[in-house]
Specification:
Blueprint: H1 2-56, H2 62-69, H3 73-85, E1 89-92, E2 99-102, H4 104-108
Antiparallel strand pairs: 1-2
Length: 109
């Protein structure tokens, strides 16, 4: 009889700990998803700012983006690569003479 009660108590303890862990795990993941959403919003805002630079200049270089957004060089190239992948801008030139122009589709907008 004592063994049965002990087994039941252990089972209840395991179930309670499992629910407690899942509750904490879900709270942590909700926090991460909010952070990811804010990061994505910031990324989209910065990409919009980059596209607005093309209203002022026909050719935009990485340095223009860096100084306008106050971001690091690596982040600048990531944004420019994404915009190029999205078909919004086109990379021109070589080496230190790299610049970007809006694509024909974007110019029509």
């Amino acid at each position: 009889m004592f063994k049965i009660i002990l087994i039941i108590l252990l089972a209840i303890l395991i179930i309670a700990l499992t629910f407690y862990y899942l509750k904490i795990y879900n709270k942590e993941n909700k926090g991460h998803s909010r952070v990811r959403m804010k990061m994505q919003e910031k990324k989209e805002m910065n990409k919009d700012k980059i596209m607005r630079l093309f209203k002022k200049k026909e050719r935009v270089q990485g340095q223009d983006v860096q100084s306008a957004l106050l971001i690091e060089e690596l982040e600048t190239w990531e944004y420019l690569k994404e915009l190029e992948k999205d078909g919004k801008i086109k990379k021109m030139g070589e080496g230190k003479n790299i610049y970007y122009v809006k694509t024909k589709e974007e110019n029509k907008k």
